[in-house]
């Protein structure tokens, strides 16, 4: 089947490459000529394990192409995906749909023959109706249907998540479109991924509900971690103890510095706004967003407390800047708030991240960047682990201790064991575990 993918960002590129790998013919479109030129040279603008190889293979085998020519890609396609950005609108937290609306207008103008237009971007309930209205207004003669097909992939594990999803959600208002989508996904549900075919509004809401629920799970365990610290309990054992109950599940119960990234903060906020607009407030999610916001700065204060109450004039070493490992994405990363809190308290920051330092330079000021974890620790009053990159999990502890001015380690991801760290001579502080 021929697919047009409008928007060659994270979701568009991964979905496009995976659909091509399943044998479809995919043309990825982007407005940015530099991005398309780079993709045509085989350069991938994002860091995602396995993506460069997958793109190269499918380009070589002729199933994946890149272009700035939206009209050509749309006219040839049976299904056109809208995978453009939906950032938070400045000021009110609603999702900014201007890129989606613009894409709808341009797609409308190019439609030729029956085409299914699919919103893959995370869009508020009712956006499918709006896209349909825009297309109909632009091209009253067009033969098309608008479908919602939210994407649930995680950065860093995007290809595996796309190819082996827990489920596929398709929101369609007519049988022909649902049938075409079912055909498109056949290679996936033959691998036994459940296919949920439902209404468009239900599909749109499902995406937000999923992200809000996951954000709630994380925030719940983070608050339990705070309580563990006060009562001398161990949050990892609590998480396992509750998670092995199948009704709860063990995933997304890792206590940490608060969730970040391009999805949870933005999507919880957008859901809160939509719910307020419809006078059906989601008060749990409102609390989750507020608690998570406060937590990131609280983590900076935790470091200051571990240093004895002041960091003024001291150098603090920070390991891990991206919002999670295996990405170069700094959006809403907890490291930003941790670092700013420490800087506000008079600390100098030296940081190291395997992939995120270029992006970090654009958001953080007055940070010195190190060559490696040991260079980062050099002469520092404390070392803070903010992101759990694998390379930080087995550091040479003797070398680290020798590099630090004071052997204080604040591990916001619990990647070391308190007893090991104590034995190696560190003052070690982690999340929700007895010292
Ligand atoms: C998230 C969802 O997991 C995906 O299902 C969804 O498709 C995606 O958003 C999206 O809407 O596009 P992502 O933002 O890539 O994916 O990253 P996650 O792995 O979910 O992590 C988000 C944040 O939560 C990170 O800061 C991570 O460190 C934190 N987290 C996650 C925890 O603090 N504890 C956990 O147990 C899990």
TrEMBL record:
NAD(+) binds at residues 30, 35, 86, 122, 155, 266, 331. Substrate binds at residues 152-155, 207, 252-256, 260, 324. Pathway: Nucleotide-sugar biosynthesis; UDP-alpha-D-glucuronate biosynthesis; UDP-alpha-D-glucuronate from UDP-alpha-D-glucose: step 1/1. It catalyses: UDP-alpha-D-glucose + 2 NAD(+) + H2O = UDP-alpha-D-glucuronate + 2 NADH + 3 H(+). Keywords: NAD, Oxidoreductase. One of its GO terms (molecular function) is UDP-glucose 6-dehydrogenase activity. It comes from the Bacteria. SUPFAM superfamilies: 6-phosphogluconate dehydrogenase C-terminal domain-like, NAD(P)-binding Rossmann-fold domains, UDP-glucose/GDP-mannose dehydrogenase C-terminal domain. NCBIfam families: NDP-sugDHase. It comes from Microvirga thermotolerans. Its EC number is 1.1.1.22. This is UDP-glucose 6-dehydrogenase. GO terms for biological process: polysaccharide biosynthetic process; UDP-glucuronate biosynthetic process. The keyword NAD applies. The active site is at 263 (nucleophile). Residues 317-418 form the UDP-glucose/GDP-mannose dehydrogenase C-terminal domain. Gene3D superfamilies: Cytochrome c1, transmembrane anchor, C-terminal, NAD(P)-binding Rossmann-like Domain.
């Amino acid at each position: 089947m021929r697919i047009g993918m409008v928007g060659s960002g994270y979701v568009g590129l991964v979905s496009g490459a995976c659909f091509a790998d399943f044998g479809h013919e995919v043309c990825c479109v982007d407005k940015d000529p530099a991005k398309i030129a780079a993709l045509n040279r085989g350069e991938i603008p994002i860091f995602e394990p396995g993506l460069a190889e997958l793109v190269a293979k499918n380009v070589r085998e002729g199933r994946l192409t890149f272009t700035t020519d939206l009209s050509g890609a749309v006219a040839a396609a049976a299904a056109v995906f809208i995978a453009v950005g939906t950032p938070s609108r400045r000021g009110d937290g609603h999702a900014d749909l201007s890129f989606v609306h613009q894409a709808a207008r341009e797609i409308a103008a190019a439609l030729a023959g029956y085409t299914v237009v699919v919103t893959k971007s995370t869009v508020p309930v009712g956006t499918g109706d709006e896209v349909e209205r825009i297309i109909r207004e632009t091209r009253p003669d067009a033969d098309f249907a608008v479908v919602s097909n939210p994407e649930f992939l995680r950065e860093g594990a995007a290809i595996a998540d796309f190819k082996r999803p827990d489920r596929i959600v398709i929101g369609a208002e007519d049988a022909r479109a649902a049938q075409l989508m079912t055909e498109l996904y056949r290679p996936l549900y033959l691998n036994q991924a459940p296919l949920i075919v439902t209404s468009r509004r239900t599909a749109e809401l499902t995406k937000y509900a999923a992200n809000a629920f996951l954000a709630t799970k994380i925030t719940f365990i983070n608050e339990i971690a705070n309580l563990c610290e006060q009562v001398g309990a161990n949050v990892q054992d609590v998480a396992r103890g509750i998670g092995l109950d199948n009704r709860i599940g063990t995933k997304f119960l890792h206590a940490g510095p608060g969730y970040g990234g391009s999805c949870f903060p933005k999507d919880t906020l957008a859901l809160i706004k939509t719910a307020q607009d419809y006078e059906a407030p989601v008060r749990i999610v409102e609390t989750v967003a507020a608690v998570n916001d406060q937590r990131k700065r609280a983590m900076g204060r935790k470091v200051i407390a571990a240093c004895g109450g002041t960091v003024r004039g001291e150098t603090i070493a920070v390991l891990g800047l991206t919002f999670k490992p295996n990405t170069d994405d700094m959006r809403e990363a907890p490291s930003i708030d941790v670092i700013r809190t420490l800087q506000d308290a008079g600390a100098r920051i030296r940081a190291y991240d395997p992939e995120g330092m270029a992006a970090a330079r654009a958001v953080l000021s007055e940070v010195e960047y190190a060559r490696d974890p040991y260079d980062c620790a050099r002469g520092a009053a404390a070392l803070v682990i903010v992101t759990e990159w694998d390379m930080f999990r087995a550091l040479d502890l003797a070398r680290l201790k020798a590099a630090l001015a004071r052997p204080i380690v604040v591990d916001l991801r619990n990647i070391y064991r308190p007893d090991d760290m104590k034995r190696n001579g560190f003052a070690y502080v982690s999340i929700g575990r007895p010292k």
